[in-house]
Amino acid sequence: MIKAPWRVLAADDDPTSGLLMQAALGGGDFALTVVADGSDALAEFRRSPFDIALLDVEMPGLDGFEVCAAIRQTHGAGFPVVLVSGRSDAEFLARAAQLSASHLAKPVNWAALATLLRAMLA
Amino acid sequence: MKYETSTVSLRARLASINSYVLWLAIALVCVFIVLTAGWLFLSVDLGGAYWQLLACFGLIVLEIAAVLAIALRLQARHVERLVEPLRELTGRMAEVSVGRLDIRAADSRVTEIAQLASGFNQMVEQIRERDHWLSTHLGNLEQIVAQRTRELRLAKEAAEAGSLAKSEFLATMSHEIRTPMNGVLGMTELLLNTELAPTQRQFVEAVERSGKHLLGIINDILDFSKIESGKLELDVADFDLRQLLEESLELFAQPAAKKGLELLGDLPPDESLVVRGDALRLRQIVVNLLGNAVKFTASGEVFLGLRVIGHSEIGLQCQLTVRDTGIGIPLEAQQRIFEHFAQADGSTTRQYGGTGLGLAICQRLVDMMGGRISVDSRPGEGACFTVELALPPGKLPDPVPVPVAANVAGRRLLIVDDTPAHCDILMAQLTGRGFAVDLAASGVRALSMANAAMGDGEPYALLIVDMEMAELPGLDLIRALRTDGRLAATRVIAFSSAPETSQQLAEAGLAVAACLPKPLRQADLLNAIETALNRRESGDSGKAPAVGRKLRGRVLLAEDNESNLIVACAQLERIGLSVLTAGDGQQALDMLASEAVDLVLMDCQMPILDGFAATSALRQSEAGSGRHLPVVALTANAMKGDRERCVAAGMDGYLAKPYSGEELFAVLARWLPAERRKAVAASGRREEAALDPAALDKIRALSPDGAEALVRQVLEAYLKAAGREWERFDRGLADGDAGLLASAAHALKSSSFNVGANGLAERCREIERLGRDGQMRPLLARVDALRAEWARVEAGLAAVLAESSR
C-alpha cells in the first residue's frame, strides 16, 4: 500500500533555505509547500490541509511564534509545528515550549531533515 | 662632790700636818732640853689660826667654784648663740640640697654668720636663677630640636619624593622613549623588507643603525640607574656558556670584518660549559667588552677567550678574556674607566662616541655576580680585560652535546691562515681531538706543503683555508689547487667574514666541502670537518632562516599608538597571522566577546581601560569556564615590576618594546601553531576559510543526480538574497538603524550557514547581537571586517560557480 505523502508547509524568508528544503524533502514521501513569510504561511495553511509546519522564527510580516499561535487556535495543541531558529536561549525555548512547538536548530542539517520529519510524523 | 672630796682630803691632810708639827715641836724641845742645859718651854696654840686659815681656804675654794660655774654658764650661752644660726643654716642647706630652693637663711646679729647667711642666700638665689635659666633653656632646646627634626623630616620626605619621582620619571621616560623607538625601529625594519633603491636602502639602514645605537644608549642609562638604585636583580637560569660566547662573537663578525679585524674565539674544546646564572647580563658584559674592543681597535685582532681554571664546590671557576690590539688605555686611566661616565680619555668621547657607562655597568654586573673584572693595557698596544667568575654548574633540558668529531682522529689537516693567533687556536682545538694538524701561514706555503705531503704519500685529508689572506687569498689558493692535477681533489673547508664568499666560490666554479662564516663556531667547524671527511652530503647546517617561517591563527592586537599599531599589524601579517585591532582595553574586551581569537597582544598603557585592567577583566569572565586565552603584554616599561604586574594581571607572556619581528615571532610561537603548509597553500587557505567546502558537498548530497545544478541554484539564490540584505544593511548604516542592521545581519547569517560561509555567518551573528542590543559603536567597528569577509565569500562563490558551469 502506498501511503499518501506527508504535506509539509515550510515558511522561510531565506531563499536558499527554501531551495534546500525542497532538495532535502524532495523524495516521494513529502509534498512540500514553501512560502517566504508568516502571512503567506497562515494564508496557505487556511487554504489547504497540512500534516506538519516548519516555521522560521524570524520572518517579515508575522514571525514564527505568531504563525504558530494562530495554528494552535485553529488546530489545537496536537498539530506538529517545528520552529526553525538559530536561537537556543532560555527565553526562546520557554516560548517554544509554551506553544508546544518542536525546535530545529539552524544551521539546519539538511541531509538529516527528511529522517527527522519522518520520525516526528510516524 | 669633787670639791667636797677634795675638801675632806685637805682637812685630813691638814690634821696630819698639825700632828706632825706638834710632834716636831716636842722632838725639838726634847733635843733642846738634851742639848741645852736649860730649856724654855714655850707653848703656843696655833689651832685658831689654822681654823681661820682653813676657813679662808674653804672660802676661796667656794668662790673659785662659783666663778667657774658662772663662767661656764656664760660661755655655754655664748656658744649657743653662735652655733644655733649655723645649725639652722645647715638645716636649710639640707633642704636646699633636696631641691627646695625657696628657703632663705635667717639674718643673724653675728656679723660673720650674717655674712655666711647672706652668702648662702645669694648662692641659693643663683642656683634658683640657674635652674630657671636651665629649664627655660631646656624648653628652648626641645623646641629647637623639634624644629630641626621637623625640618629634617621634611627634607627627608622631599628627598624620598624626589627619588621616587626620579624612578617614576625613569619609568615614564623609559615608556615614552621606547614607544616612539618601537615605531621608528619597527617601521625601519618593515621598510627594509620592502623594495628600495640602493640609496634609499642605504639611508634606511643608517636610520636603523642610529636607532639601534640610540636604543643601546637608552638601555645603558636605564640599566645604570637601575643598578645604582639597587633595583636590578639577577636572573638565575641554566644556559650554555659556549653558545652564549659564540653567539656574542657572531654579533661582531660583521663590524669586525668591516674594519678588517680578525675576530678570534678560543673556548675550551671538550668541556661541558652548561652553567647557571644570568645569561642575559653575562651576555651584556661580553658584548660590551667585545664592542669596546672592536670600537677601539683600528687594525689587528680581537680575541675572546675562556679558560676554565678549576672546578670548585661553587662550580666552574672561569676566566674570560677579551683582548684587542687597539689604542689601549693609559695606566692612570685604568682604574677610572670603571667609574661611570668616564672614558680613558675625555676626547675619546668625541672620537669614538659612547656614554662611558658600559664598563661601569660591566663592573657592577660582575660585582653582583660575585666576580672580578680587571684590565691590563699598554697604550698603543691594546687592552686586555679579564673577568673572573665562578658559575655553578647547570643542566639543560636537552643537553648540548659537546662537539665531538668521531672516526676522524689521526687524519692530516692543513690549516691555512695568516693570523698566527687564530692558527694557534685552531691548532689547539683540532689537535685536542686527535687530528694531525699542520699550519701554513700563507697560501703559497700551503701549496708547497700540500705538494710535499702528496709527494711523501701522506696527502692532507683536508685543507682549512682562511679566505682573507694578504698573500695569495683563499680564492686564488683554491683555484690553484683545483688546477693542479695532483691536488685537484683535495677537500677544502673555507672560512670567511664576507657573507658573499660562498657565492663567489660558486661563481668561480670552485667546489668546497663547506664555507663557514667567521668567527668559527667549534661545533660548526667540527661538523664540517666530519662531513667533509666522511663525504656525507652536507645538510643545511645553518639555522633555518626566520624569514619565511609562519604561524597560524587569529590575533587581537590592542594598541593605542597608531604607528605601533601599523608596525605590529604588518609584522603579524608577515608572520601569517590574521589580525584584529582594538584601540583600547574596552574595545578589546568588546571584540573578544564576539570574535574568536587565538591570542591577544595587549599594550599595557592604553586610554579608557589599560592592558592590565582589560586582562584582569578577561580572566574574570573566563573564570570557571575552563577557557584561557593567551595574552601577551606589550610594554615599553622595561622596569622592574612590569613583569610582575603583567603576571598578576593574568598575562601569559611579555614583550618589551621596542621589539623586532624576530622577537615577536619567538614569543608568539609559544602559543600559536606553526604554519606547515607551503606559502601557496596558505594563500588558498583564506578561500577555504571563507567557504566551507563540506557545506557545498552536503548540498550536492541532497540531490545526487542534479548536484551541480542544485549548488548553482542555491548559490545564485544566496547571492541574490545577500545582495538584497546588503542593501538593507547599508540603509541601516545610513539611517543608524540598529534594528534594521540586526535584521539584515540575521538574514545574511542564516543563508550564509547554508552555503558554508561560516566565517561570514559568525560575523553576522555578532553584528546581529550588537544590533539587537543597540551597541552601535562596536557594531560599526566590525563592519569593515564583515565587508572584507563578504568580499572573500563573493570571490569564493564566484570561483565555485565558474567551476560548476564548466
Structure, described:
The complex is a heterodimer of chains A (122) and B (806). Chain A has 122 residues and is α/β, with parallel strands linked by helices. Chain A has helices at residues 15-24, 38-47, 64-75, 90-98, 110-121, and strands at residues 6-11, 30-35, 52-56, 81-85, 102-105. Chain A has a 5-stranded parallel beta sheet, sandwiched between helices. In chain A, strand 3 (52-56), helix 3 and strand 4 (81-85) form a beta-alpha-beta unit. Chain B is α/β, with parallel strands linked by helices and 806 residues long. Helix content of chain B is 58%, strand content 12%. In chain B, helix 3 (111-192) runs antiparallel to helix 4 and helix 5 (241-251) runs parallel beside helix 7. Chain B starts with a helix and ends with a helix. The A-B interface holds A 13-20, 23-24, 26, 56, 58, 86, 106-108, 110-111 and B 698-699, 701-703, 710, 713-714, 717-718, 720-721, 743, 746-747, 749-751, 753-755, 761, 765.
